[in-house]
Write a structure and sequence with these properties.
InterPro entries: DUF413. It holds the Pfam family DUF413. Belongs to the MaoP family. This protein is mostly helical. The chain has one domain. 49% of the residues lie in helices and 0% in strands. The protein is built from 5 helices and no strands. Helix 1 crosses helix 3. The longest helix has 19 residues. The radius of gyration is 22 Å and the shape is globular. The N and C termini lie far apart (61 Å).
């Protein structure tokens, strides 16, 4: 467990919508990050939404780190910012096609179509 002045949540934190199988099984978080999110997530979410007010300097700094991610310094702040990015950010899509030649022909402009016949023909 991480040493911190941030209050541990009254209940374990889960995000069944974004991570139905749990944080660590998603492949995005380590076991340590899973522990941080599960333990502190309820408090961090309440601080972020304004449901509760910060009671110490570390919780105040957490709110500053939310506004300016470059100022995050603790493992808890960095883990929560990572969670926000993954859970609320755009989903990336990766194809399984590894045919580089096919990808290059897709990137050719219409004006270059005649030249591509010389290269790939």
């Amino acid at each position: 467990m991480v040493e911190s002045e941030i209050r541990i949540g009254e209940k374990r934190f889960y995000d069944n919508k974004a991570f139905p199988r749990g944080f660590s099984k998603s492949g995005n978080f380590t076991l340590a990050e899973d522990d941080i999110l599960s333990s502190y997530g309820q408090t961090l979410q309440a601080l972020e939404s304004g449901e509760i007010m910060p009671v110490n300097t570390e919780e105040k700094h957490f709110l500053k780190a939310l506004r300016n991610p470059g100022k995050s310094k603790s493992k808890i702040e960095k883990t929560w910012l990572k969670y926000i990015q993954i859970a609320r950010g755009r989903k990336s899509f990766h194809t399984l096609n590894g045919n580089r030649r096919h990808q290059e022909t897709l990137n050719v402009d219409v004006t270059d179509a005649e030249m591509s016949d010389e290269v790939y023909g």
